[in-house]
Amino acid sequence: MWEIKLADGFSVSALGLGCSSMSYGYETGPRDDDESVRVIHRALDLGVTLFDTADVYGPFTNEELIGRALHGRRDRAVVATKCGMVTRPDGRFRRDGRPEHLRRACDASLRRLRTDTIDLYQLHRVDPAVPLAETWGALGELVTAGKVRALGISHATRAELDEIHAVFPLTTVQYELSVWAPGSRREILPWCRRNGVGFLAFAPIGRGFLSGRVSPERLDAGDSRVRDPRFGAEAMRANEAILDGLREIAARHDATPSQVAIAWALAQGPDVVPIPGTRHLHWLEENVAAAQLRLTAEELHRLDTLPTAVGEMHWDRLREDHPGPADAPDATDARPAN
Prior knowledge:
alpha/beta; eight-stranded parallel sheet; two-stranded antiparallel sheet; 11 helices; 12 strands
């Protein structure tokens, strides 16, 4: 797999691996940490170097899993984790951008990840209760201290990106980007290109929907997607038109809809790194193979002109507390969103 340069001295594989579904996500069955370790090892063998997690996934257990899986292989991986969200006693999440919290969170993540340095430390969400300059200044100090190599952020507004980048340079932003969620192409991706910042595209398979393997009947009561209007039965039926377009193009390439969706994300530019997530070897290998799929200009136009997706996603409400992290894992077999 080829590499993408996100900043001077900071390159990653063209595809990353979202790891949250290994410990947290939509699937309600038992965790299989041994299988997840095999997935991470296989990803390394296939040339994947970027592994994305967060302290709130689990919480904490996903970082512990990554630390275990990369033990003895740490030099082959770029570890990206996130901070700034905290689990409440009721299981909901709140934001915490206080400098003292971020310093403690970084030290705890270093221990769980079994590493001396976090390659990419991302603010999971901006905390409106804390001046952004204080939050970002504290994260910049972690880079200066050698605990972190580079900084990223998930779901900041364009104005927030301007403020952040002036305090300490960003290396990446992380946003959802997919055939059915292309909105970040309007303002965020152009901002990244003007400022030389890389773009990590989570949920390129639309939290599993774009695989064609998710249906209302497969979503049980414990699946977080059942709370999302876009995964309501009527919305999913309407959004079959998007799937039909993916299937049409997949048939031309002897590929799957998931692979076409990932290839579309890769085609958005040399600074875009899709990070589909899975905890299964089969889906990992299918996803990685998508890096070899080249879509024609006509096929990309066809995908760009598919019907607009029906149904709001609760992840879209960026300033509210959510029942779960807005970028939880992307999946393929009822697979989970980052």
